Amino acid sequence: MTSPLTTKDLSCGKPTWCPGCGDFAVLNAVQRAIIELGLKKEEVACVTGIGCSSKLSEYLDTYGFHTIHGRSLPIATGVKLANPQLTVIDAGGDGDGFAIGCGHFVHAARRNVDITYILMNNQIYSLTKGQASPTSDRGFITKTSPEGVEETPINVLFMALTAGATFVASGFSSDVVGLGKIIARGIKHKGFSFINVISPCVTFNKLNTYDWYKRCVYNVEDEPGYDPLSYDFALKTALEYFERKPIGVLFECETQVFREVIMSRNPIPPARQDISDAKKYSALMEQYLRK
Amino acid sequence: MIKHSVNITIGGEAGDGILSAGEILCKIFFATGLGLCTYKNFPSRIRGGHTAYSIRIADSLCESGDPETDILLVFDEESFAVHNRELKDGSIVIYDSTKVKNVVKVDKKVDYYAVAISEMAVSKFAKPMYKNTITVGFIAAILGLNEKAVEDGLEKSIKSKKGEDVFKTNLEACRFGANYYKNELKGRTIAAPSADHKNVVMMTGNEAIILGALTAGCKFAAAYPISPATEIFEALCTLLPKNGGTVMQAEDEISAICSAIGAGFAGARSMTSTSGPGISLMAEALGLAACAEVPVVIVNVQRPGPSTGLPTKTEQGDFYHALFSTHGDIPRIVLMAGDVNQCFDFTVKAFNLAEVYQCPVILLSEQALGQNKFVAPALDFSTVEIDRGKLKTEEELSKPDYKFLRYGFTADGVSDRAIPGQAGGVHIASGNEHLESGRITERPDIRIKITDKRMKKIEEAKNSRHLPKPVYFGAGCAQTPFEKYSSGSAQDARPSDGVPRDESSPLGIICAGHNAGIVREALEILAAGNGPKFAVMQITSIMPLPADEISKFASGKKKVLVIENNFSGQLANIIKMHIPIHDKISSILKYDGIAFSAKEIAAKLSEVCAQN
Fold it and tell me: pLDDT tens for residues B41-83?
């Protein structure tokens, strides 16, 4: 029996995030979740797109795939479908997931593919040094919005719920222990888990700071009438997101996972099938053949 | 070679059931042992607009359509007008007098028969759709087809799908049509070609690719519906889950290739199938697969571009795109299949090459090959081989003295590969520039070394046994144009490595894809008329390009004609990038969305020779 993993075992390289960046806590929380669930390194595949937050896969010592901007969700979906035995974690920023990758988000959620998607939401593009993102608040002055953002920000929780995500939660980088538990619950959930993590950028977002967020977050589980099985409750809670930000699991329901039926018929994952006996497929030619 | 062939065309409005009549006829002809190829002219819509299904039957296997029609059946006025110009002395036309009122006859010895087919179908069999089987009966009578073969063909087409009753009514309608033609119309007959091809298949290029993918062990496919490639993914949606694999209908082609890359990273042989617009969307991910060294197969059934272009027509216009799309320098392999057998073989090879060289492999086909049926030698499963390259087993990875480096520098540029789930192989794959471990780096020295390593793989692939070799035929070559069909076995259909034996002809032709089979027949037509002789080289691998072989082929030639279906002579230009034969090369081009015919190429070749 091997000894349980530590966060150090799951760490790799020296993160290039700015001191104080919320992303450190997300990395740590992911590691805590892996440890809590007793997963082995090789059973986890972490897929990320491009951006500061997408560097998470570089610093997590599991299987990883640091891919291209906005496309981590279809790639993670492919990994999971090819080998459902893997724990697939996708992490990325609000630009990656909700600007360039927004279309994929909706479809990954409605497919209910069994992966965990962690949005590291800082409401700004940081790797390109400070442009407005699709979650930036209206009026926010950035390099690309010198007169303030004019677009309505995307309500990611509401979008996740309406797109069909079967696990929707929100966390905050200032509570790494709590975040680790939410991520562990998301990983355990069978189906598409969406976790919106408030992960402040201390360098380029001087509006939505730790202090600013601390004033508007609250523990959703303390709310009167809290019921993670209630879609109505989750929708109502999500709709308030721009005024007050819930922390905790908003919604969780078990329903058929994408390709569950096919997987139940094929206990060996597609990626692990023995493909050496190619000649057996000659039988498929029969219907086209004149002997 | 083809001594006798008959071309049958059925024309009408989309939704008239032209397709089902054509499919039934194909099954009947195939059952009798004839050679056959089809040419479907379908608009990109479900109902309305002119539609035609042409079937050329021959005493030999054939790959070229015929621009002249022997038997024409038309259900609407537009079809009547469109196909009039294809008629020749001796043609027979039957038109639906219920619909076709404006009859302008051509000034040739053509027999026209007016039959109220639609009315007949309703009055005798209660449904207008029975006009298709009545039509089948007419054709059976014109060609004097064996009744048993007709019945078998109908049964195979209808019984399993629509049941016994529908089959019986169809059989009746067909017999009625045959008797009506013989007894009421007292119509003229045309001698059917006679052949008894054995160990042959009748399938489309797309169907051959489907079988190739399954045989190669493809276990994941993702795609977005697109003409003319949709059938490939449709079939895989049923077949892969039954064979240990899985599929995903993607929200767009970006998602399709990305999920295929994800599955490839996870260790499944994976693919996507698409056409021009989809390939355009896949450009960025192509670079990811190459940089992260993830195997993936991309099938591109080409259609005319740019933009939406002509979705249901044919072209060979994506050579540049296949070779150059994506930013930066990437290793990629581009194959081009020219017939049903190559569609099958090259698909298997594509999967092997993708895993052996850990890079994206693009397999080019084209609408005319992908969506038309051909009677071809049976697919050859005996030589199929699965080569997974440097994919390591868990046992190998866990050896005490072994250190796994995903992008380790090696002599051939190919590194050991591990897949998630394997202990001892934990690594990061990356589209960022990376160290041997896969971790991100910006070190200039590593950047050079790892770029060189990646690009080295294409040099290596040149000598791979999995890379299809050029096919030579015609003057001075080991293979005569029709030798590949001589015994009707797949053995002859596989690319011959025979290089030209002598330099008996100063004229050379270079072509790729579906044009190869059409050029074969064009050479036979020229030979029959004591026309000029040509040596032909069919290029099957666009990247790596067999530059040395092309150079050798061209060295004894005064002129090299590159025949291709696009505006700019893309293949010719690619050849010129590699070999300084600019003074010898000229192009024969076609970009009207319609495939060449052998007659057309023969005429153009004669013309070129007359000019010189």
Answer: 777 666 667 889 999 999 999 999 999 999 999 999 999 988 9
* B174 shares its domain with B229: no
Are residues B219 and A289, on separate chains, in Cβ contact within 8 Å?
Answer: no
Q: How far apart are CA A36 and CA A34, in angstroms?
A: 6
- The residue type of B146 is N
Q: Is B272 on the interface with A (CB under 8 A)?
A: no
**A243 class by beta-carbon count within 10 Å (0-12 exposed, 13-18 middle, 19+ buried):** exposed
Give the C-alpha separation, B529 to B599, whole Å: 12
Number of domains forming the structure of chain A: 1
Q: Kindly report the three-state secondary structure assignment for every residue of A43-105.
A: HEEEEECCCCHHHHHHHECCEEEECCCCCHHHHHHHHHHHCCCCEEEEEEEHHHHHHHCHHHH
Helices A231-239 and A156-163 cross at an angle (nearest 10°) of 150
Domain count along chain B:
3
Among B36, B426, B439, B489, most A C-beta atoms within 10 A, so best to mutate, is: B426
Round to whole Å and give the CA distance between A65 and B104: 67
Range of the domain at A213: 23-288
CB distance B214–A284 less than 8 Å? yes
B212 close contact with A: CB closer than 8 A:
no
A164 touches chain B (CB under 8 A): no
The answer to whether B389 contacts chain A (CB < 8 Å) is no
User: In chain A, whose CA is at the least distance from the CA of B344?
Assistant: A285
Query: What is the model's pLDDT at position A7?
Result: 97
Strand order of the β-sheet with A167-172 is A217-219, A245-252, A167-172, A193-198, A116-121, A87-93, A44-48, A63-66, B428-430
Q: Does B260 touch chain A (CB under 8 A)?
A: yes
State the count of interchain CB pairs (< 8 A) between A and B: 232
Give B227-280 pLDDT, tens digit per residue: 999 999 999 999 999 999 999 999 999 999 999 999 999 999 999 999 999 999
Any A CB within 8 A of B420 CB: yes
* Domain containing residue B16: 5-197
Q: Is residue B403 part of a domain?
A: no
